[in-house]
Amino acid sequence: MMKYKDWIKEWLENYVKASLKQRTYTRYAEIVCGHIIPTLGEYNIEEITPLKLQRYTRELLQKGNKRTGKGLSANSVNGIITVVQTSLKTAFKVGIVKEYAGDRIRRPKVQEKQVICFTKQEQRAIEQEIFRRNTPKLYGIIISLYTGIRIGELLALTWADIDITRGVMTINKTCYEGRDKTGKYVRITESPKTNNSIREVPIPKQLLTLMKAWKKKSYSKYVVSNGEKGVSLRGYQRIFERLLNRIKIAHKGFHALRHTFATRALECGMDVKTLSEILGHKNTNITLNRYVHSLIEHKREMMNRVGRLISEL
Questions:
Q1: Cα dist. 81→61, 67, 97 in Å?
Q2: Alpha-carbon separation of residue 154 from 231, 257, 309 (angstroms)
Q3: Cβ-based burial of 96 (10 A; exposed 0-12, middle 13-18, buried ≥19)
Q4: DSSP state of 15
């Protein structure tokens, strides 16, 4: 009988690595080595029963964090379970096991993360500080605030992706930091995770005017650069954190810029379908579920318009 650790290594190399993106393979490999093999690896693959998987799920929630000994979040546990399920499903399809047991796991419920964005006053303070400092590599923060693109998409963006005449930017790649074949951390650029993330984003004409001026001063192919070179994700996150510290705004992650754009767009009356396409969401339900709180002011304004009819009675 084949041990599960032997199968999951085989699955990683011959199924995941051969067909999925490098980023996905790296993440799966870290989960396999860090969580799955130490706990389930010594079992024969036929011994991986639904009950054993459910107990494993509970253990992850209770004490799955290898560093602290505490439980993992529901989101992290679901990521691990996805790897287990996919590996077992492939084993069933190719005849390694007679039955697929992974579909009988009761997954922990994941609550939608709270959307954190900057207030209008904080946004204005950020913009004023960037324009005051007039440092080219800070301009990417303005771009994110007014287009909602992700940090990986922003840092992979080149001037060739900007159509000044049409006023459109093409999002067709992203970047992240991962290990190369030697194990060294490097910047990796590849196509976005999903087809929906490949999109054209219209540039507001006010931002387009600024970008034309920025392009004239650029010596790099990258829109956000440090001299001629691109900027690392971690480096740019630290730059953003230092900016917030200087103007005494409580720390929020770079992704808060994307949430801020979406919130302002809804406040300005942008319809959810348009916003969903600009953000690169798979469907409008994702956008609605994530930003429903941002619609409350718009709803209140619409209700007040209806309420004005009272005076006409």
A1: 12, 19, 18
A2: 10, 12, 46
A3: middle
A4: I
**Residue 311 has what pLDDT?**
66
β-bridge mates for residue 168, sequence order:
163, 202
Report which of 27, 244, 19 is spatially closest to residue 130, judged by C-alpha positions: 244
Q: Give residue 305's pLDDT.
A: 85
Supply the pLDDT for residue 59. Answer: 94
Per-residue DSSP letter, 224? S
CA distances from 276 to 37, 153, 261, 288, 296 (A): 39, 16, 12, 9, 18
- For the chain (313 residues), the mean pLDDT of every run of 10, in chain order, is 93 91 88 95 93 94 90 93 95 92 87 83 97 92 97 96 96 86 78 88 95 91 89 94 96 95 91 94 89 76 85 63
- 174: three-class secondary structure by DSSP: strand
Amino acid at position 205, single letter: K
Per-residue model confidence (pLDDT) at position 22: 82
| Residue located via tokens 């690392």 | 232
Q: What is the largest CA-CA distance in the chain?
A: 81
Give the separation between CA 301 and CA 313, rounded to whole angstroms: 20
Cα angle 65-67-70, degrees, rounded to a multiple of 5: 40
Tokens of 256: 């808060």
Question: Hey, CA dihedral for 140, 146, 151, 157, is it positive or negative?
Answer: negative
Spatial separation of the C-alpha atoms in residues 199 and 52, rounded to whole Å: 43
Q: Measure the CA–CA gap between 83 and 9, rounded to whole angstroms.
A: 12
pLDDT of 292: 76
**pLDDT for res 303:** 87
